Amino acid sequence: MPPPSRLYDALTVIYAAAQVIQRAAVISVEKNVPSVAYGAASEPINNPARPTPLATATESKETNTEGKETEFKILPNTWTYVRPYSPITQDVSQNTIPEAILPKVREVQLQSEPTLATQIDQSKKESFDYYEDTEPAVKLTPSRVPSSRLGRLFHYGSLAASLTAGTASEYVRRVARGSGSDTGSPMMSEANISRLVEKLSRMRGAALKLGQFLSIQDAHVLPEQIERVLRQVQNNAHYMPNSQLEQVLSAEFGPNWNEKFTHFDRIPIASASIGQVHKATIPPNETPIALKVQFPNIAESIYSDLANISTLLTASALLPRGLYLDRTLAVMKGELADECDYEREATCVERFGEFLGGENERFRVPKVIRELTTKRALAMEWMEGVSVAKGARWPQKTRDQIATDILTLSLRELFEFRLMQTDPNWSNFLYNPRTDKLELIDFGASREYSKEFMDDWFELLSAAVREDRDACVEYSLKLGYLMGAESQEMMDAHVRSVTLLGVPFRASTPQPFSFKSQTITDEIRALIPVMLRLRLTPPPKETYSLNRKLSGAFLLCGRLGADVDCRSIWERVVGAYKVG
User: ATP-binding: is it a keyword of this entry (predicted)?
Assistant: First the structure.
């Protein structure tokens, strides 16, 4: 029979459900809220107004008269997080913008992906025209975003109730089987994981952002079951049906909003946690743009959503104590509020455009179309590059250059701009083979750091590069990483994790540094459980986003298998920093 702790899991989830339902009961229903705000009506996948669905992309391969597979092409304007289930981009037939008006850019030919690694032609490995299709496919599904506060509470309450029932059912199943092999929490059964994925995918907003916020890329901070939920949720992208999209655009641009565009594709090319991105063209020259449209009332629902999520996570008792959930959620509230302000993001785009606008820069930042930008809508110049996440088999020289550029930019953001785009999502970096430049496309997660903080963080990182343990402890105390009363085990783990970050930049480290064979991320990952178990204080609020970006940059360099002269970057960028 399962131990009593399993029964405690079930009882705590029941208590969580009661709390969420009670919170919903005390909120008065706002007047004139349309009944559809509480539903989850979906537009059918086979809607005649919708072009060929992405789900059929795997069937789009054709054979010529000789029985050979045709080659596919990456066409211009491939800015998208959404991918079909094959190594091709969206079929041009799915694009309602006439191809004739799109800018003429050299097309990149794609060969059919080989079945076995041994079948890969060596010449393809060294060709930009070949890439390893490693990104998970993201399925686009239309579903109405619950937009009222009470409507969202209803959904969280129903989620808590269904998890309660699922936990009880799993507990009974395990008792009936009498098996001791089921050691995991009954709350995180396969059925409950499916319930979480389905509901959180529909809710969007804070639920999806929390997944990105906590996952810290591949750090494995979270229990395996929670990581599975977050991975699956991020691969299920829901978007607003036409009726809701119409309401949002009318609210932002007026009832005749469509007159502002010569073409507008109602099926988004991307859908994320707080909004979706559409292709469009604007007069007078049919200029292609990307229009980011925010989901209705997402900004207003942040605080209530996080309160409900906190209740569910606390009841599950699955998160490690050292995550300091309350502090994590408090930092996340501020970051989400910033990301929901598209006018703020537009300003950040323009600031980065000024920082990186030099003729010799290796980056391109899109121009903002201010007349089509509001707090809930953001219009920008269309970018034509290809996600660097697809570049695992690009030529070594190209991969090395991309990794060098991204690592250089990360340090410049800290020590030169003191403004960092902190979302390490690889889809935010596009490589344009025609211009040989990186295109940056998402600035919602931009964070500014004070000079005082950066001075201390510079001293800490410099101490890590010098392997100066005493200085590492001194500035860790000053920044708030440590309190001074930590155990020796905790102190050793923290100092070791900090000094590992300095390894690539040391004068004694052979250059270029091979990220393909490095073990830094694995070593830091192994220290995380110790620090979560023993630390006495949460990390400084500034470092949540900063560490997320730097760890993401290291992981991207590793994924690209890049060789980077890190010492040269350090001397050129960090060496120029002046304290005080």
Answer: yes
